[in-house]
TrEMBL record:
Family: Belongs to the NAD(P)-dependent epimerase/dehydratase family.
This enzyme's EC code(s): 5.1.3.6
Subunit: Homodimer.
Protein name: UDP-glucuronate 4-epimerase
PANTHER family: EPIMERASE-RELATED
Keywords, in A-Z order: Isomerase, Membrane, NAD, Transmembrane, Transmembrane helix
Membrane topology designation: Multi-pass membrane protein
GO molecular function annotation: UDP-glucuronate 4-epimerase activity
Transmembrane segments: 31-55
Length: 430
């Protein structure tokens, strides 16, 4: 022990050097010595606690950083490879919600023709995430890399734009489902209004990408004028889902106006098909029919059947790709507008509404099984009685022409369903 240390921290009291001649002074020194010792110990303990706490917070933030599923040289290489354009005049597209139903199909179509594609998906558990994982493997097999992340993650989005100069963004990530909005309203605000984070990153990008995104037929809400045209009223939403999609249309308009972002909003009409969403009626009806369970069919006012303009996925993909192909360039860069940019809204429907009981009859035919129908009055849950798209505008501007009727489309869906889940999955065998 050094002299100084020995003085400060005497191993025995007797070692403490005092003037033995003065008792008072000795007491005083002893008292002073023990107080200063305690003081130093306290200081030492405080310092120890402080460094422990800051080390913990370093570990926490560090683990957040290190446990992120993105970043690093290898990751950047995968992103670049996947976004590589393979045809002349091709585009490099960031597809959000890529492991979703429409996202998967659009990503495959783009990759197939030689466009570069990077997918983004948060793999949330709104419906069975294993279906999303299966879609992801399908995409990986075709050379499409999927980044696991949320559209609200500005750091991740900025990083993606640092690595790739995306020409287009196909924004399909959303909280879908009309009736679920009553159970989990905040999820709709988080995901659907989360569009703002994406737009902020896009407006600051240099070059700015053109954006095509999924709105919804539900924005027509209580509109009764049929068929629904893009210029019809959309200020009477019947569900929070519809309200957040309508908000998306207004929000994208402001980014178009202020920053010169090229925007195309697509109002999808009840999209169905292989690799579809298990929360949708045609999908859950199929599962219940095969399992021998009853299905609930809602009926409108005065016993009128509900009807939807069911639109097959391949037709929707054509509409999405057509929108990307015809999208004008964004005019701004680095957050500054340089001139007016394109702002478009299109209906993507089938123009041929079918009632829900008819949908069930078609499923019965393809499944060769009878449904146990439980018909109830439509609860006040955000549903609308019917939808019907006027598609003259996308026909003219995009060459959009749906070619699959519900009979044909459901046949393809049932074929996929049986191949994916198997005939006897959960089927009640008496
Ligand atoms: O076009 C859209 O913008 C939306 O389309 C889809 O919504 P919807 O048209 O409501 O589809 P879907 O749930 O399949 O119900 C179909 C019909 O079955 C009736 N329905 C439903 C469930 C049930 O148990 N019984 C029943 O009769 C029900 O009353 C309805 O009449 C998407 O989910 C949505 O995300 C959004 O994209």
């Amino acid at each position: 022990m050094s002299l100084l240390e020995e003085e400060l921290f005497p191993s025995t009291p007797g070692k403490f050097k005092i003037d033995r001649g003065h008792t008072m002074s000795r007491h005083f020194h002893r008292c002073f010595a023990s107080t200063s010792t305690m003081f130093l110990w306290a200081l030492f303990l405080i310092a120890l606690t402080a460094s422990y706490l800051s080390f913990q917070s370093f570990i926490d933030s560090g683990s957040k950083y290190f446990s992120a599923s993105w970043g690093g040289i290898q990751w950047e290489k995968q992103v670049r490879n996947s976004a590589q354009i393979q045809r002349s005049g091709g585009m490099s597209v960031l597809v959000t919600g890529a492991a979703g139903f429409v996202g998967t199909h659009v990503s495959l179509a783009l990759k197939k023709r030689g466009d570069g594609v990077i997918g983004l998906d948060n793999f949330n558990n709104y419906y069975d995430p294993s279906l999303k994982r299966a879609r992801k493997s399908l995409l990986n097999k075709r050379g499409i890399y999927i980044v696991e992340g949320d559209v609200n993650d500005a750091r991740l989005l900025t990083k993606l734009f640092d690595v790739v100069a995306f020409t287009h963004v196909m924004h399909l990530a959303a909280q879908a489902g009309v009736r679920y909005a009553m159970k989990n309203p905040h999820s709709y605000v988080h995901s659907n209004i989360g569009l703002v984070t994406l737009l902020e990153v896009c407006k600051s990008a240099n070059p700015q990408p053109a954006i095509v995104w999924a709105s919804s037929s539900s924005v027509y809400g209580l509109n009764e004028k049929v068929p629904f045209s893009e210029s019809d009223r959309t200020d009477q939403p019947a569900s929070l889902y519809a309200a957040t999609k309508k908000a998306g249309e207004e929000i994208t308009h402001t980014y178009n106006h202020i920053y010169g972002l090229s925007i195309t909003g697509l109002r999808f009409f009840t999209v169905y098909g292989p690799w579809g969403r298990p929360d949708m009626a045609y999908f859950s009806f199929t599962r219940n029919i095969l399992q021998g369970k009853p299905i609930t069919i809602y009926r409108g006012k005065n016993g009128v059947d509900l009807a939807r303009d069911f639109t097959f996925i391949d037709d929707i993909v054509k509409g999405c790709v057509g929108s990307l192909d015809t999208a004008g360039k964004s005019t701004g860069s680095g957050g500054k507008k340089r001139g007016p940019a394109q702002y478009r809204i299109f209906n993507l429907g089938n123009t041929s509404p079918v009632t829900v009981p008819t949908l069930v009859s078609i499923l019965e035919k393809h499944l060769k099984m009878k449904a146990k129908r439980n018909i109830v009055d439509m609860p006040g849950n955000g549903d609308v009685p019917f939808t019907h798209a006027n598609i003259s505008l996308p026909r003219r501007e995009l060459g959009y022409k749906p070619t699959t009727d519900l009979q044909t489309g459901l046949k393809k869906f049932v074929k996929w369903y049986l191949a994916y889940y198997g005939y006897n999955r959960g089927k009640v065998v008496n």
